[in-house]
Amino acid sequence: xxxxxxxxxxxxxxxxxxxxxxxxxxxxxxxxxxxxxxxxxxxxxxxxxxxxxxxxxxxxxxxxxxxxxxxxxxxxxxxx
Length: 80
What we know:
Elements (H helix, E strand, L loop, with lengths): L1 H11 L6 E3 L4 H8 L9 H5 L3 E4 L2 E4 L3 H7 L10
């Protein structure tokens, strides 16, 4: 949901809602969200086909899917 929020804020400022720079480190994100660094690694989201990350450049592939996962409306399994 953090990535969806970042995309929403970017879109509100007339920037892309799906492509953005991650300005915070994983440690900072974990600290803000109250999570360990192991729980916020993008590997699972990348495997699900939801994001791609190259250094700090992020691309949100399907903004609706993370919201559905967070709300329990979609199964957390690889995309077909």
